[in-house]
Amino acid sequence: MSSSSPSHFPAVERLVTQVAAAFEPHAEVEAVALDGSLATGSADSSSDADFGVYLSSSPAPERECEIRSRIQPTLPIVLGAGIFKTHDILITPGGLRADISYYLAPAAEEAIHGALIQPSPALVRTSDLCALIRDSRILFDRTGWLKKMQEITSGPYPEALRTSIMARHWQMLAHPVSSFQQQMCISAARGDLPGWRYYSDLFITSYFQIVFAANRVLNSNRKRLMEIARRSCAVLPANFEEIEQFILSPPGVRSNEIAGRLVNGLRELME
Q: What pLDDT, on the 0 to 100 scale, is given for residue 124?
């Protein structure tokens, strides 16, 4: 968790106050937090604001409409799945964009328990949520639940979680038939650019999941992955810098060759 405050972004600070004040009066809201680079102090002038709203329970439809009607006048929500569904997007009059993500607190606690206390192979992807909560800046915490979750997520990285994440994502990268690399080859041969982009994004995600798990690093950020890996990981594949070439390469033989070398480079971390 970070104590740093984005005080050099006054518009963000005003929005932080608005968001916390808008959700605090509603009994269903357990906690509100500022997430992402603005919470960790790594933001720049182009960074969006990210908020997490944790709910003790899902409100009934009529209650949801009531809460929406009370929040809408104070928060410039322009697009979203609806309060307490998945997420909303805000755009302030000054042009600042913010994402609000909604989580059920009991489900989040179960996910953290399944990742860090009794690691389960079925919950290997919950390490992202652990890092998100650990690094968030608490804005409102009705019962102290979020502070408790931060204390848990700040503990040691479980070896069972590391093993589970690496094994699962290695299969996705290296399986001779069903790997993302094979699916990229098929998509490229068909001239299916959207399909290739889809599988290449999954390839990149799995690649970094292994890199971070091998180094026992919890990371929730989906951006600046190379920068974060260089800064936080003690051991990187010898050919790590080739991931940038892969990201910039169009579909074809060259990108497939780079992908193959990247997978081979990960083998040293798997041993």
A: 57
Residues in the chain: 271
Q: CATH number for 159-270: choose from 1.20.120, 3.30.420, 1.10.287, 1.10.10.
A: 1.20.120
Q: Which residue's structure tokens are 């290449």?
A: 200
Of residues 77 and 211, more confidently modeled:
211
Token pair 């963000």 in the structure block, residue: 12
CB-neighbour burial class of residue 244 (10 A; exposed 0-12, middle 13-18, buried 19+): exposed
pLDDT digits 0-9 by tens, 51-61: 999 999 988 88
Q: Is 41 helix (H, G, I), strand (E, B) or coil?
A: coil
CATH 3.30.460.10 domain locations along the chain:
10-153
146, 200 Cβ separation under 8 angstroms: no
DSSP of 70-105, one letter per residue? HHTTTS-EEEES-TTTSEEEEE-TT--EEEEEEEEH
- The mean pLDDT of the chain is 86
Query: How many angstroms separate the CA atoms of 129 and 152, rounded?
Result: 12
Question: Are the beta carbons of 136 and 85 closer than 8 angstroms?
Answer: no
For the chain, residues classed under CATH 1.20.120 are 159-270
Which architecture, in CATH terms, is 10-153?
2-Layer Sandwich (3.30)
